[in-house]
Amino acid sequence: MAQNESKIPRVVEQFESEILADWTNVLVGTMGRGGGAISESELRSQAGEFLNLFRRALKKGDLDNIEGSAWTDARDMLGNLSRSRGSQGFTPSETASFVLSLKRPILTRLRAAHEKDTEGLANDALSLTDVIDALGLYTTEIYQTGREDVIRRQQQDMLELSTPVVKLWDGVLALPMIGTLDSGRTQIVMESLLQRIVETGAEIAIIDITGVPTVDTLTAQHLLKTVTAARLMGAECIISGIRPQIAQTIVHLGVDLEGVTTKASLADAFAVALKRLNLTVTKATNGHTHRA
Amino acid sequence: MGEFLLVTIQVDMHDQLALTLQDDLTAQITKTGARGVLIDISSLEMVDSFIGRMIASIAGMARILDAYTVVVGMQPAVAITLVELGLSLPGVRTALNVDRGMKLLVTLRGESIEEDDADNAEA
């Protein structure tokens, strides 16, 4: 497809305002259906800016390679656009159709420009389709990457959120675990617990698994590892919050929890911890506060 | 320190050093008649399976020579490594710092005077 045969750049340049008008009409039409989280004027200005960049890129460079330097500006703009669409909650097809809907207005103008030259029209139509499709794919890809970033960030947040180590008393730490325990999480749990043991000099750590939905052999193994590591550092672990089903599962799985203190509730575990530290809870005679 | 020996490991242990430590320590226990050994590994940043096993065997030897071993100040990273290596060091007593380790030794010593082998089963 030689450059001199193609009428695309010329057509786009010549009819820029008409194409823009047609295109924005289509865009506004689709936007009306989609409910629209973006204002019409914003959409118009985005369309105008992109068409301008598109025209310049056409003038400069080859149509077959949108990775080329001629397309840098247009690509950057599309990238930003699809990223912002992604965060505004647009669907992938809505985002991609921004570019894809440009095809029809240009094709209409091309048909008029070529008149009876069907060969040239077919060639131009092909190359135009290629370019627009490539741009559409690029948009979708950026959109997807944006989404994946969001997911990754949320995953990270979840990891950090779900592993707090709280201090119950001087020398007593508690670790309320919530959610499924996989290897990655257990590693973080273990590290944060051990780190806190060093920082606070706690002698007893209570791991509460009330919020853990199921325990399988792997989870139990992770728990045991944490307990052992804490013991190696000189702190004792108590596992609490074992629900009836989990107790059954643990026994059926043949997991050996011997040597680990287990309690049904966090309160029981805390009582044990206080006892180990030679502390008692007594009722104050003149008030209703409890002191240890 | 009284009837206890205090071993502080300040450098990264390599294999030969660990073997030397084992020799020295057993010799010292016999010579001084120490009843407890406190090994401070708070400056130890890295361990391998050999060092892990070494710590366990030092504890075992000390026990035979009638001395308790307490390992103190293990770093979280070291603890995780040992657990991942499958070395849970059964029979080795641990404490968070030298202070607590000393208290533990004194308690153990007190128990062993009262009841000679009460701790054997537990260890």
Describe this structure in words.
The complex is a heterodimer of chains A (292) and B (123). Chain A is 63% helix and 10% strand. Chain A has 292 residues and is of the alpha/beta class. Chain A folds into two domains: 8-156, Globin-like (Orthogonal Bundle); 166-291, 2-Layer Sandwich (Transcription Regulator spoIIAA), CATH 3.30.750.24. In chain A, the strands form two sheets. In chain A, strands 1-2-3-4-5 form a five-stranded mixed beta sheet, sandwiched between helices. Chain A has a two-stranded antiparallel sheet with strand order 6-7. In chain A, helix 4 packs across helix 7 (118-161), helix 5 (92-100) packs antiparallel against helix 7 (118-161) and helix 6 (103-114) runs antiparallel to helix 7 (118-161). Chain A is rod-shaped, with a radius of gyration of 32 Å. The termini of chain A are far apart. The model of chain A has no long low-confidence stretch (mean pLDDT 81). Chain B has a single domain (4-122), classed as Transcription Regulator spoIIAA, CATH 3.30.750.24. Chain B contains five helices and four strands, in the order E-H-E-H-E-H-E-H-H. Chain B has helices at 15-32, 49-64, 76-84, 98-114, 118-122; strands at 4-8, 36-40, 68-72, 93-95. A four-stranded parallel beta sheet of chain B has the order 1-2-3-4, sandwiched between helices. In chain B, strand 2, helix 2 (49-64) and strand 3 form a beta-alpha-beta unit. In chain B, helix 1 runs parallel beside helix 2 (49-64). Chain B is globular, with a radius of gyration of 14 Å. Chain B starts with a strand and ends with a helix. The A-B interface holds A 190-191, 194-195, 197-198, 201-203, 225, 228-235 and B 71-76, 78-80, 82-84, 88-89, 94-97, 100-101.
